[in-house]
Design a protein that fits this description.
Order of helices and strands: HEHEHEHEHEHHEHEHEEHH
Helix content: 40-55%
CATH class of the largest domain: Alpha Beta
Number of domains: 2
Largest sheet: 9 strands, mixed
CATH topology of the largest domain: D-Maltodextrin-Binding Protein, domain 2
Number of strands: 9
CATH superfamily of the largest domain: Periplasmic binding protein-like II
Low-confidence stretches: 1-10, 12-20
Number of helices: 11
Shape: elongated
Distance between the termini: 20 Å
Structural class: alpha/beta
Length: about 250
């Protein structure tokens, strides 16, 4: 069965809603799964008649926003964050796993692809780069650890540029020059591929790091039934097939 048929089959039950019924579901989500989430939500909206409004943020930004007065129906974040807010009562104890995103390497349009086939090759590529660009979010914090493990953190500090999120990193690399390399979630690199950004490849297995993402209903959810339908669809085989197509494993 192809993906289209799988999606239609999985959503068939959602079509059995009262005529004229439509809810607006609000979602606060980590940005790394943006391509897959947008595609899956588009399929869900067409079948259900519900509207879904998504706000994207980095993990630190999510935590900051949740301390304020804003509320959402669904929260999508790494399991550790969801577990923390489940203990405080802000989200439900149950969550649905959506997938995981690995780290990748990107270069500007037309640039040569460096060898990153092993941890040692990646180290050479970093040292040979004119500049390196990564974020201050969870993937950037992990990459800092990799640089320290390689023993080159101090050596590359002078040619490092940091941004708050991965989208800004990829935008910088797109407009870059010379031997500049960007690092971040593979999904965010793929999102800019149509503009010419080149995915060199995933991190070598020795230093690869995956961030998992799950979805939970928020305790303050105003559209609880509709939000539950959305979460169940995102975690279904049809929903996950759309995530996989967007680079979410």
């Amino acid at each position: 069965m192809n993906i289209r048929m799988t999606v239609l089959t999985a959503l068939a039950g959602l079509l059995l809603v009262p005529a004229g019924y439509a809810a607006e579901i609000t979602v606060l989500s980590a940005g790394a799964i943006e391509p897959g989430l947008k595609a899956a939500v588009t399929a869900y909206q067409k079948a259900s008649g519900d509207a879904v409004k998504i706000s994207f943020a980095t993990a630190p930004q999510i935590q900051k926003r949740l301390e304020g007065s804003e509320t959402w129906d669904v929260l999508i974040a790494p399991p550790a964050i969801l577990e923390g807010y489940a203990k405080s009562g802000k989200v439900g104890a149950e969550s649905v796993a959506l997938g995981r995103v690995g780290m990748g390497v990107a270069v500007r349009p037309g640039a040569d692809l460096p060898d990153i086939s092993s941890a040692e090759a990646l180290k050479r590529a970093i040292l040979n780069a004119e500049s390196i660009v990564f974020n201050r979010a969870s993937t950037g914090l992990y990459f800092e650890k990799v640089l320290k493990q390689m023993g080159i953190s101090a050596e590359v500090e002078g040619k490092t540029t940091r941004y708050a999120d991965g989208a800004a990193v990829m935008e910088h690399v797109l407009k870059g020059h010379g031997r500049e390399i960007g690092f971040g979630p593979i999904t965010e690199i793929l999102l800019q591929r149509e503009k010419g950004l080149r995915l060199v490849g995933p991190f070598p297995a020795e230093v690869q790091n995956y961030t998992a993402y799950s979805a939970s209903l928020m305790s303050s959810a105003a559209q609880r039934a509709a939000a539950r339908n959305l979460v169940e669809y995102l975690g279904s085989p049809a929903g996950k097939a759309i995530f996989v197509a967007a680079g979410v494993e």
